[in-house]
Structures are given as structure tokens and as C-alpha cells.
Design brief:
The chain has 167 residues and is of the alpha+beta class. The protein is built from 4 helices and 8 strands. The strands form 2 sheets. A 5-stranded antiparallel β-sheet has the order 1-2-3-4-5, sandwiched between helices. A 3-stranded antiparallel β-sheet has the order 6-8-7, covered by helices on one side.
Length: 167
């Protein structure tokens, strides 16, 4: 088994800061998740989820990181690497932004920084899985050099699997 470096948990771009989770992120994380249209999770549940994300990061050396805009200092979503439907050796890149932050290039910018962090760990490939209905996310991934691998059908519809070589 290949040993990979630990991903950087502090990433900066021209407009964004990606940093480790804090308990104080719970209320904003709840608000983000409520935009999915399935209700608002309890803040205590989200605090537990944040603790689980922090613990998983300590175990795996990869992380899903909150995104803040540099100038405004506000939480606009998250981006990072997860095991998800993939593996620790070839993790998935994942991101989600508040709707008010859509269409401004933030997802592409944050994901580009995460790809750079993945390269620095020595990994050779990343995956992403996106609902076939989510054309904006598919465009972001294509801009970043991801290519469609296959489509699967799950309970919530078709899922497009994309991959990107890091070599």
C-alpha cells in the first residue's frame, strides 16, 4: 500500500480561505444544508457531524473544509476530499455552496485549490460523483479537467462518475 502525505487543511486562493471546521460553523452549516429542501437539521446534530468530520480528518489525512470569502469573512460552503463512494487512495472531491454564492466561480476556485492539495499528497487520481441533473456542478468539474467515466442509477436518480488524473 502506498503511503500518502497529509492534505493541507489551510488553503488560500485569491478570493477564498479554506480552513478546518470549528464548532462555531454549526449554525451556518445547518443553513447551508437546509437549502437542499429537506428541512433544517438540528444544530446539535450538526455539531456532532462537525466532530465526526474532524475525527475522520485525523484518521484519513484528507478533509472537507469550510470555505470563507477573504474580504467578507463569511462562510459560503465547503470543499474538500472525502472517501464517499470511492477510496482513500482515490478520494472524491466534494463541494457545496450557498445558492447566493452560485455562479461566481467560487466552486471552481475552491476545488482548484483542493486539487492542488491532493497532488501534494502524492495521489494519482480523484473521483467525483454528481447527480445527472446538476449541470452547474458538471460544468465546474469539466473546467477542472474531470472526464466522465460512467453513470449509475441510485435511489435518487442517475449519478455521473467523473475522474481526473493528477499525474
Amino acid at each position: 500500500m502506498t503511503t500518502y502525505g497529509t492534505m493541507s487543511f489551510h488553503l488560500e486562493t485569491e478570493r477564498l480561505l479554506l480552513r478546518p471546521w470549528a464548532e462555531s460553523d454549526a449554525a451556518e452549516f445547518c443553513a447551508l444544508l437546509s437549502e437542499r429542501g429537506k428541512g433544517t437539521p438540528a444544530v446539535e446534530h450538526i455539531r456532532t457531524s462537525i466532530a465526526e468530520l474532524i475525527a475522520a480528518t485525523a484518521t484519513t489525512g484528507i478533509a472537507l473544509l469550510p470555505i470563507q470569502r477573504r474580504v467578507e469573512g463569511d462562510f459560503i460552503g465547503y470543499c474538500g476530499l472525502i472517501i464517499g463512494r470511492s477510496t482513500l487512495e482515490e478520494p472524491e472531491i466534494a463541494y457545496e455552496l450557498f445558492q447566493h454564492a452560485h455562479g461566481r466561480g467560487y466552486a471552481t476556485e475552491a476545488a482548484g485549490a483542493v486539487i492542488g492539495a491532493a497532488v501534494a499528497t502524492g495521489r494519482k487520481r480523484l473521483w467525483s460523483t454528481v447527480g445527472a441533473w446538476n449541470a452547474p456542478s458538471l460544468r465546474v468539474l469539466e473546467k477542472l479537467g474531470f472526464e466522465r467515466d460512467h453513470v449509475s442509477t441510485e435511489d435518487n436518480g442517475e449519478v455521473v462518475w467523473l475522474t481526473r488524473s493528477l499525474l
